[in-house]
């Protein structure tokens, strides 16, 4: 009972409270927040698969007529090949990389726009707030995926690339983060430390960047993961409908192609199943991380030791 | 609920429909693609028209669709047409109008959506309420877990997995289509069973992934409510557990769920669209799928706009349901 002896004996010298290192604390938190830990583990595993794959495999194999046709999984082709002669292992590696690219780019754009608009609305209030909020509220009930179908459908097929995909997905996905960040800044603005900063003559920008932004980081991180999830899902949705960049081995495109060729009816079961499982892993991991970060950002439900 | 609130809700509905129509009107016009030219270009390649004739045809079609007028005039006319639910003609199934295409496929979609949404909402809400209720038996509380695990799985993927494992491997249920090939639709019992068998897999792919979401939100709500004073008070009054569960706990937790239902409508409909396409059910989703493959732009835009309007309308209607559930709103 070192603790009691220390407290009963006030002259006990140097009872230093050892503050565990940051890493230990993080790891300890991850042990309590298992969902977050599992989600991060899956994402790391997928990233490892993609990176090693990109280093080892020839990306050309992910495109048509580079391998034998319609081979079931074997030693030579661990994931099999498809109707168009793509090595599905290579296609999965490239597809995974493209999915990550779209997710990060679109998620990043959506979050950045959301953070800026949310800040503007909450910090300046008045008609700025009114306009931004009204636009968000009017756009929110519109099913964004279907509007994205219109956008992707209006484009020339040759113009649809991985980057345009990301743009289409990001274009209508900033309303969620805007509203979340706005609400957080509104509560943050009323806190005393902001009042103190204002009274000490800190400029608007100083308050935004030095006082409010650091406190918002957990919320921004949670919004970002949510946006990445949304972007991956939306690009997958468009691709499954046949609106993706058809030549690219995007996971949704592989499923669309398999479906168009009647893969199950012809017994090529591995063709649609592999991207389907990969997508479950990606979306499941992102959902777990998202929920875990929500918990981290919201101290009320955060699990303590 | 006074007249001002009703008016504000209706104004909001009109604004949503206007915004959606405007987006759907302008986006295609910003793109260099010309639907009619593409359509007749295809015809010219396959049908052996001379290029001059095709140009004449295109010009006359442009005139018929009003595409030669100034943009603003087109826009006003278009808004007027939307008001009358007139979305123009289908290009690939001319002379059918887009409204005909929608009307033909709508009953299938409504049937599927109504059944799956009601089942997953009711099942998820009950399971979530039970999962948060400390006095419920353990086995019942853990029933929700498998559904929670399936939450992240998109309905299309769920459909592919069900199609493969239950349809192909086990051969328990049919693989697609609305009813068996060669059967004539009649009002008979056997046809009805055949019809239902074809609906099970699409319905399951929509239900399995969405129950978990309702469980999670209801469970969270339930846990919050258990700490409330009025639940404690009811317990100390000596009310039966069942009464507390129904009147103090379920009823209070239900309101956010209904709000959630309104917000989820968009997701529900968009997932149904792609699941229908996967299973080849003759609903709106398949119509959209075919239109995308055939570059039938009026049908694509019409369906998107129709769904948006329907969702906005349903959301507005749900807002009018809140006062029935919550006396506090009724009083204001």
Automatic annotation (TrEMBL), chain B:
Domain ABC transmembrane type-1: from-to ranges: 106-322
Membrane listed as a keyword: yes
For this protein, the parts annotated as crossing the membrane are 6-27, 112-133, 145-165, 172-193, 199-216, 253-279, 299-325
GO terms under cellular component: plasma membrane
Q: Name one GO biological process term.
A: transmembrane transport
Q: Is Isomerase found in the keyword set? A: no
What is this entry's stated membrane topology?
Multi-pass membrane protein
Q: Which Gene3D superfamilies match?
A: MetI-like
Keywords of the record, alphabetical order, are: Cell membrane, Membrane, Transmembrane, Transmembrane helix, Transport
Q: Subcellular location, in the record's words?
A: Cell membrane
Q: Which InterPro entries match?
A: BPD_transp_1_N, MetI-like, MetI-like_sf
Q: Which Pfam families match?
A: BPD_transp_1, BPD_transp_1_N
Family assignment from sequence similarity: Belongs to the binding-protein-dependent transport system permease family.
Descriptive protein name: Oligopeptide ABC transporter permease
Q: Which organism is it from?
A: Devosia soli
């Amino acid at each position: 009972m070192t603790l009691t002896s220390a407290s009963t004996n006030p002259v006990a010298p140097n009872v230093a409270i050892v503050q565990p290192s940051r890493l230990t604390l993080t790891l300890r938190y991850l042990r309590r927040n298992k969902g977050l830990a599992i989600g991060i583990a899956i994402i790391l595993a997928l990233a490892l698969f993609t990176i090693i794959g990109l280093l080892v495999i020839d990306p050309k194999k992910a495109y048509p007529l580079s391998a034998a046709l319609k081979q079931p999984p074997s030693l030579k082709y661990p994931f099999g090949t498809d109707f168009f002669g793509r090595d599905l292992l290579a296609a999965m590696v490239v597809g995974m990389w493209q999915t990550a690219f779209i997710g990060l780019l679109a998620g990043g754009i959506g979050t950045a726009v959301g953070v800026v608009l949310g800040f503007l609305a909450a910090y300046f209030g008045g008609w700025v707030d009114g306009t931004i909020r009204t636009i968000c509220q009017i756009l929110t009930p519109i099913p964004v995926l279907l509007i994205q179908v219109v956008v992707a459908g209006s484009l020339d097929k040759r113009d649809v690339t991985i980057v345009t995909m990301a743009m289409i997905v990001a274009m209508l996905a900033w309303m969620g983060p805007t509203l979340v960040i706005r609400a957080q800044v509104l509560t943050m603005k009323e806190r005393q430390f902001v009042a103190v900063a204002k009274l000490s003559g800190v400029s608007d920008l100083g308050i935004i960047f030095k006082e409010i932004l650091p406190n918002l980081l957990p919320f921004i991180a949670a919004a970002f993961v949510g946006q990445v999830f949304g972007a991956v899902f939306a690009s997958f949705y468009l691709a499954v409908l046949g609106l993706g960049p058809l030549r690219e081995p995007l996971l949704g495109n592989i499923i669309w192609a398999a479906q168009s060729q009647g893969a199950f009816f012809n017994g090529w079961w591995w063709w649609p199943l592999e991207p389907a499982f990969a997508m479950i892993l990606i979306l499941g991991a992102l959902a777990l991380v998202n929920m875990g970060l929500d918990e981290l950002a919201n101290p009320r439900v955060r699990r303590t030791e | 609920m006074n007249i001002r609130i009703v008016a504000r809700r209706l104004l909001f509905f009109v604004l949503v429909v206007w915004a959606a129509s405007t987006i759907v009107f302008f986006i295609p016009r910003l793109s260099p693609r010309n639907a009619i030219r593409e359509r007749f270009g295809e015809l010219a390649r396959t049908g052996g028209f001379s290029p001059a004739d095709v140009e004449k045809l295109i010009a006359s079609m442009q005139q018929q669709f009003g595409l030669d007028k100034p943009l603003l005039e087109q826009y006003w006319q278009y808004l007027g047409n939307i008001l009358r639910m007139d979305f123009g003609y289908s290009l690939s199934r001319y002379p059918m109008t887009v409204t005909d295409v929608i009307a033909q496929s709508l009953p299938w979609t409504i049937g599927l959506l109504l059944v799956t949404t009601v089942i997953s909402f009711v099942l998820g809400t009950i399971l979530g309420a039970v999962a948060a209720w400390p006095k419920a038996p353990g086995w019942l509380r853990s029933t929700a877990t498998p559904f929670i695990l399936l939450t992240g799985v998109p309905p299309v993927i769920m459909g592919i997995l069900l199609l493969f494992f239950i349809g192909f491997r086990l051969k328990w249920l049919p693989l697609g289509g609305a009813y068996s090939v060669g059967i004539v639709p009649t009002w008979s019992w056997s046809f009805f069973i055949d019809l239902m068998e074809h609906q099970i897999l699409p319905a399951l792919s929509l239900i399995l992934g969405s129950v978990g979401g309702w469980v999670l939100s209801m469970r969270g709500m339930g846990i919050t409510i258990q700490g409330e004073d009025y639940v404690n008070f009811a317990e100390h009054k000596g009310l039966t557990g069942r009464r507390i569960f129904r009147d103090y706990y379920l009823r209070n937790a239900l309101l956010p769920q209904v709000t959630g239902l309104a917000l989820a409508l968009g997701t529900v409909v968009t997932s149904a669209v792609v699941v229908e396409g996967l299973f080849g059910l003759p609903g709106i989703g398949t119509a959209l799928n075919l239109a995308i493959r055939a570059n039938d732009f009026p049908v694509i835009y019409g369906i998107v706009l129709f769904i948006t309007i329907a969702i906005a309308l349903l959301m507005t209607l749900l807002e009018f349901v809140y006062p029935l559930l919550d006396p506090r709103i009724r009083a204001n």
